[in-house]
Fold each of these.
Amino acid sequence: MRKFLERIFLNEKFIFAVILLNAFVIFAEESEIDNLALQITDIACTFIFIIEMIVKHIHLGFKGYWKSGWNRMDGILVILSLPSVASLFLPKVGIDLSILMIFRLLRVLRFFRVMHFFPNFTQIIKNFKLAMKQSYAILLAFFVIIVIFGLVNCALFKEIAPAYFSTPLDSIYAIFQLFTVEGWYEIPNTIAEATSSTIGSLVKFYFCLLLILGGIIGMSFINSIFVDAMVSDNNDDVKQKLEELEKKIDQLLEEKNENKNNRL
């Protein structure tokens, strides 16, 4: 029986199919399709995930199961989905689970497990961690720049454009919006309309400089560093292969010269 359960519930393809089925069921339920078959299928999927967690505990042991990051995420989501199962029985004794049923929305996070099936996903995560490690100082410096300009603009334009700069947090958000080139022109236009033509022109020029330095040059610089760090492993592989190829070429040239000398 144990081997039979392990063969079924440790089969990644079977679990992947159940995840997709559960995704369809949740999509239908959130679309307000009231169907008894959907409810039964949803509960069945939840029980399958519970049994899978139990089988993995038996197969890997408690420490072995919770040592894996994917298993930790899966186990937490399964535990949080238990109120939706308990609601089938506890309302009969007069217990209201309306608050606990909020956790049913967390079931959608279970679909992150699908990423585990993507090819080279582990390598992608590894490269992402490496990219974050190499570029965190640049990201931190960029955030500090946003905060500084946010505070400066809050002091300058608090009274003129309170919709954007009434508080430091609003001002920081406005600068972030400007650097992401998201409706950036609305901010200087609002200030220009509330001031004279000369001040309005200066303000527009000032915000154009901010856009060029922060939104275009700054964001492009950060993207280039992050992308370069993400593909650094691939560059290392290419470099290693080129070095190996150069060594082989050198060996062939040496052998050719030796043969030539021997003939002479």
Amino acid sequence: MSVDVQAFAQVIRIRFRKGEAKLPLLPKAVLEVQKIVQDESKGASDITKALAQSPTFSATVLRIANSPEFKNGAYEVRSLPMAVQRLGGRRTLQLMVAISSKLHMNVKDKGLKKILDRSKTDALYVAVAARNLAQLLQNAEPEEAFLAGMLHDIGVLAVVCAVPDLLSPLAYEDQLAIIDALHLETGGRLLNYWEMPDSFESIASHHGIESDDRPRDKLIDIVDAASFLVRSFGHKMLFNSSDLIDPSHYPPIQRIGASETHLAAIEIELEDNVAKMSSALR
């Protein structure tokens, strides 16, 4: 028998208010690099020292720097300082944040694991499409658009990590419906907790919704346009918040000024670019 989704969601909200539901933490290495990037007096050597304390992130950053997505025919880097130099401090931080969710995906329940896996795949598709849109339109920083895409549905992870005990006994469809009801507000709460920029918190809280209180931010339009395009290209998303229409009539696509030529270019390169990025972030 199906549960009352709204009543169940309210139980989870009460848990959050009472402090009984805990949001996932960013790893210590990410927090340290985040502080370094925000400090203009520090640089790549400081980031390298912080990364060196985490074998997991050190190996991952080195592998990413040598991946086809970032190597671009250049020489292979064999040391962490060279890897950070190639990626840059800001991009290194963005990639660390993007892959941090993988550290919280070790759930036993098959339904919840399926939801997290699908959400991770969706995020990568949206992130790559968002970055490509930003590159083509030159109206936003491509790496900012990529990270925004990776984090736009982070609320899915936040809900699952906060109350796995409540969700695990439920049928898959009920789990999905409850997470859908909560992931926007919880995603915004999590990114605030992680001290991410306000624009990212807004994206997590408002993406996919056309409303009077929707922030007028180019980045959220790029993420929504990317999500719409990914679905229109045939990728089945975890949450389908709106019916597909002609892309030229979709408000976020109109607002960012994407033409049919831009959209066609995204479609041609999407699968290949996702495969490259997936290999880099594995």
Amino acid sequence: MPLKPYACTNCGHWQKYFAVPPNCPICTDVRNDLPENGWEFVTPEQVAPTLDYHWREAIPGVWEFWSTPRFGLDSHGWLLTYPDGNVAFEAAPYYNAAQLAKIGELGGIRFLAASHPHGYGALFQLQEAFNPALLIQKDDLEWTKAMHVTLPYDDVFEIRPGLSLHHTGGHYDGHAILYDRERKAVFAGDSLKIDFDADGSAQRISCHKAYHKQIPLSRDEVRRYRAVYEQLDFTTVFTPFEYATDTSTKAALALFDELIAGPPFTSPIQIAR
């Protein structure tokens, strides 16, 4: 019996199954909420006509792909363009034909990666459409049933000179971030959360073990974050949901230092500049 993709309407996680899945592994995990009215799963044919599809060049050489209205956790996909092969990090909840054509026009995808399951979106679509190498940190392999991981890695993986994946753990055991030295940008996954004012400026920063449940990281988990981040010089932060061009290494380290110095907390603090 052929496997078919199904997405959970509560969180948007895709899994391939031989029938409607019995549950969603992301929602049954402590970091997410269970659906109040029970499970509902939808196929690509059901999802596709319900969304509008968008893309834009967020900063030079970095393209953002997303859809509206919100579907699941509403992750955004990032495409970093290079003459010798593009790199995609995270994924939108679903891609239509126009979005896939735009990615093809930009040069396709040579390497595909994600920080952790909350940023996976429709990674399976990108792998099927462009056949890139798929890089996932080895401690998160249990969440990748919808894809074929071709390059599991340990603590650091250099995709190309100046572009590297770094294992942070914390939010998920295999959580990892992508650092772009040339653009002075970090694709932080859920290791950082940025809050914006009404004018769109980044003002507050936080980190959590579980956002929905407001569970803080342990002190040692924060120390691991700090040890990774202090090596990286950046001024722009991308998450699976937003980006801020005025948030730096200094801001991240100030958050981690405050968490290490006192009792655990999840509330955001003012961004240090």
